[in-house]
C-alpha cells in the first residue's frame, strides 16, 4: 500500500461538487496571485505533501488516515443530503430541508473544514513562533540551571516542525473547544441558498469564510464567530451555498427560516452572489475553484 504523502486540506469529495463539466475528476483553478486559470486534476488540488504527517508517531500518517476515514465521509454524506434536497426541481422555496441532527452534522463539517485549512495553520504557526521564546524564557527561569540535554530538547520545539504540527492538529480535535465552537455555530440561523439562473458560486482552498456583513471584510481571523455582523459562508456546489447568521441579525427575523431553502434569482440577486464569490477571493490562501473557466475569469 502506497504512503499517503499527498494530503488534502480540502477533501476531494468536496471538490468533486465543483468538478468541470468535461471530467468529474478535474476542476478549473484560478491563482489569486497570478490570475492564471487552468484545468487541474482534483487529486492534485488543495493538497500539500505531508500536511498532516507527524514523524514522531509509530504511524506517522495517523492524522491523515483519521481525516480520511472519520471526518471526510461525514462531510460527504451531509453535502449529498443538502444537494439532493436543495437542488431538487420539485422543492418549493422556503421549505425546511434540514433536521436538527443534519444541522449538527453540517455545523461539525463546517468547523472541521475551517480548523484544518491552510489559513488556520498559518495563523497557529504565527502564534507558535511568537510564544515560543516566552515559553523558553519561563522554562529556563523555572528549571534553571539547564544542562545541555535539556537545552537541546527545548531547541527541538523550535527546529523540529513535528512538534508544532502535532499541537496544531491535536487542537482541531480538542473536545472542549470543538464543542464550544459547534454549540455557538448551532445557535445561528442556517439558510441554504439555491441559485435560479446562470450565475454560479465558486469555492477556494479555504472554503469556509467568516464575512463581516456590514464592511464586507473577509480577511481570515478578522471577524469573530460570535459577532452579530459575522456571516459564515460555505458553498457546497456551484448552485448551492450555506449561510449561517447570528440569531439577532435582522432583529431575529431569520430564525423562522432556520434550515430552510431560499431561492435567489441570478438577475435580481447578482450582487449577493458576487459578494459571496468575492469573499472567497479575499479569504483564500491563493486558489479559487469552479466548474466553469469562463465564470472563474470574471471573478
Describe this structure in words.
With 299 residues, the protein is α+β, with helices and mostly antiparallel strands. The chain has a domain at 6-100 and 187-298. 43% of the residues lie in helices and 18% in strands. It has helices at residues 12-15, 62-86, 100-116, 118-143, 148-159, 161-172, 175-186, 270-283, 293-298; strands at 6-8, 26-31, 37-41, 47-49, 189-196, 203-204, 209-212, 230-237, 240-245, 260-265, 287-290. Helix 2 (62-86) crosses helix 3, helix 3 (100-116) packs across helix 7 and helix 5 (148-159) packs across helix 6 (161-172). The mean pLDDT is 91.
Q: What characteristics describe this protein?
A:
9 helices, single chain, 43% helix, 299 residues, 11 strands, 5-stranded mixed sheet, 4-stranded antiparallel sheet, 18% strand, alpha+beta
